[in-house]
Amino acid sequence: MRKLSITTFLLAAFSFALLPTIASATSTPPFAYSPPTISGIAQSGQTLQVASDGLWTESALSYGYNWRDCDAALTACTDIAGATNTNSVVLSDADIGSVVIVVVTDYGISGPGTAHSAPTAVVIAASPTPTPGPKPPGAGIPANTSLPTISGKAKSKSQLTAKTGRWINGPTSYKYQWKSCTSQNKNCKAILGATKNKLMLSKKYVGHRLVVTVTAVNTSGKASATSKASSVIR
After folding, report:
1. CB 151 within 8 A of CB 163
2. In 3D, which of 152, 173, 176, 148 has the Cα closest to residue 163?
3. Which ranges of 26-74 would DSSP assign to H, the alpha helix?
4. DSSP state, 12?
5. Number of domains comprising the chain
6. SS3 of 63, please?
7. Alpha carbons 50 and 70: distance in angstroms, whole number
8. Which CATH number goes with the domain that contains 173?
9. How far apart are CA 68 and CA 40, in angstroms?
10. pLDDT-based confidence at 128, cuts 50/70/90?
């Protein structure tokens, strides 16, 4: 049997020692066996985020990101301005009509590897701000459309009755205030305690005219209207 020379033996050992270095130099960059994913709504003004960097054959020392607008077939893509090295992007009107992907770069020991997400839905325009419509019946404070009225004989010991008149915006209650005025319907003053819809006349009102102020109330507020004056009380 032929013996190996010392030189041959040393060469063989040296070559064996180099194998890991050669293997390392020829190793493949990392690749994603599960692609990155995106979360968010594909609409102008909305924010998209990287939900997952993906699963890679080699743990990354760091990740890089690049957001892109593409056609539906992903055959024509352009970078979204300012959307590099960030894991989120705010969509604008410039993205409308495109689908969006994010390209993730895994910077591993073996070198960088890239993978892109599945595309989003087609980016749509932002929802328009709704225009306020007309207020429904009952909205807003009450408004008078026909003045309150007074009925009954303008005579001492008789009773006057106030009617509310007509109102819009759905009053839920009414308040009354009777007032005593001069015979020329001037200098009207509130009558103490006269806050119901009926008023019994006494001698002190003789020679005066009376009016009634009705206040309509609802959840939005209140408003008042005053009747025409009665005849001079006899």
Report:
1. yes
2. 148
3. none
4. H
5. 2
6. strand
7. 17
8. 2.60.40.2700
9. 15
10. confident
Q: Which two tokens stand for residue 191?
A: 């009558």
Tell me the C-alpha to C-alpha distance, in Å, between residue 138 and each of 44, 131, 174, 175, 218.
37, 20, 15, 18, 9
pLDDT (tens digit, 9 = 90+) per residue, 150-175?
Answer: 999 999 999 999 999 999 999 999 99
CA atoms within 13 A on the CB side of 128: 3
Q: CB-based contacts of 38: which residues, under 8 Å, 6+ apart?
A: 48, 49, 50, 51, 100, 101, 102, 117, 118, 120
Strands 221-226 and 209-218, by their bridges, are antiparallel
pTM strictly above 0.70 = no
> Do 56 and 112 belong to one domain?
yes
For the chain, how far is it from start to end, CA to CA, in angstroms?
Answer: 154
